[in-house]
Amino acid sequence: MDMDAFFASVEVQKRNPALNGKPVVIGGSGDPTRRGVVSTASYEARKYGIHSAMPLRTAFKLCPDAIFLPVDYEEYVRVSRTFKAVLREVTPLLEDVGIDEALLDISDLQATSEEISYEIKMKIRQATGLSCSIGIAPNKLLAKIASDMQKPDGLTIITPADIETRIWPLSVRKLWGVGPKTEAHLKAVNINTIGELASLPLERLIEEFNNSYGNYLYSASRGFDESQVVTHCEPKSSSRETTFQSDIYNWQEIAKNLADLCREVSKDLKRSGHRGKTITVKVRYSDFKTVTRAKTLDRAADSVEEIRKAAFECLGRVELKNKKVRLIGVRAGNLEKDFA
Ligand code: TTP
Ligand code: MG
User: Fold this and answer.
1) Which terminus of the chain is more exposed, N or C, with fewer CB under 10 A?
2) How far is CA 26 from CA 3, 17, 98, 99, 151, in A?
């Protein structure tokens, strides 16, 4: 599923439903006479040729009457969390792809694809007032293409039998992982659609690109994709830091805070079932100059004692004499999953 004209729809909803049906452009500081690019535009604004990544000044020339608004990222993140919570109620098998899209594995649900789609659309509308488009397909690659086929408020179901008739006529750009460079390369050899791409033998694709990308294009153009829905990402590090209310220069106080942070990091690691092999201490002085010192352990650790020992060794290598400290932090990196 992918939200429709996401940033623009949130703004219309947030500010004033009277903006509904008007051309709305979101980008930069919202001032179309200044530098900046369009983040997104409402479907009404798209009719004037306005699209994402276009300079705001160009958008202004295309439609001077459009309503230009600044980007309010925090609000979009808040709405994103809300609709993802709705989706997780439908199934926990959810891959978080971006701020306005997600992939759901619904293979084991009892209801039909249509029933699930309408339930999702209704619940998202109730929770956020916004519309989304849904694609249902046997794999992630095709579902993503399908979600884009009947925007806005679309529902597109693609079966293996539809690949030749509905996927092959589309531009190669619709395939995940095909950007402007590959598109230009293919155009130069007279390949524009996914179907034309599928007509090329594997050897030719490997010759034009390389082994792994050639293989990818070969299977993607046939609608093959066996990748799983990835429900969570492994954390790469676990860290905690404190900014002091007022800068401090007292070593005892710094040490006490460092010890507290080590206890927090240890707790976080134990909670997520990880051990860290590299412990890093960060110190930011009152002039914002920041130094880090790291220690790699013989064995990955999660205990307060081990983390504290390494952290204090790092702190010992930080210049503190005649310095005021504004922030201190501890990070456990090089994480290993704790299978014990
Ligand atoms: P998209 O889903 O690509 O676009 P969209 O939701 O605005 O419109 P559509 O109905 O076609 O899905 O991107 C989601 C949000 O990401 C979009 O609202 C704004 C932001 N974005 C940018 O800031 N810059 C960009 O170049 C693009 C493509 C998106
Ligand atoms: Mg979108």
Assistant:
1) C
2) 15, 16, 18, 15, 19
pLDDT band at 18 (very low <50, low <70, confident <90, very high): confident
Q: Which of 11, 101, 196, 203 is catalytic?
A: 101
Q: What is the CATH number of the domain that holds 78?
A: 3.30.70.270
Ligand 1 pocket check for 3: Cβ under 6 Å: yes
Pocket flag, ligand 1, residue 151 (CB < 6 Å): yes
- For residue 301, what is the enclosing H or E element? strand 290-301
What count of other Cβ atoms lies within 10 Å of the Cβ of residue 291? Answer: 14
Average pLDDT over residues 311-321: 96
Mutate to test the pocket of ligand 1, among 40, 79, 133, 151 (most ligand atoms within 8 A of CB): 40
Residue 235 confidence (pLDDT): 78
pLDDT at 191 over 80: yes
Number of domains in the chain: 4
- Same domain, yes or no, for 173 and 241? no
For residue 114, indicate whether it is catalytic. Answer: no
Max Cα distance, the chain (Å): 74
Please tell me the pTM assigned to this model: 0.74
The finding on whether 152 has its CB within 6 A of some atom of ligand 1 is yes
Same domain, 97 and 48: no
* 71 CA: nearest ligand 1 atom: 23
CB of 333 closer than 6 A to ligand 1?
no
Closest residue by CA, ligand 1 atom 20:
39
Give the confidence band of 305 by pLDDT, cuts at 50, 70, 90. very high
CATH number at residue 247: 3.30.1490.100
Domain boundary among 112, 131, 161: 161
pLDDT-derived band of residue 340, with 50, 70 and 90 as boundaries?
low
CATH number of the domain within which 65 lies: 3.40.1170.60
Residue 162, C-beta contacts closer than 8 angstroms, at least 6 positions apart: none
Per the structure, the complete domain to which residue 270 belongs is given by 237-337
Same domain flag for 178 and 154: no
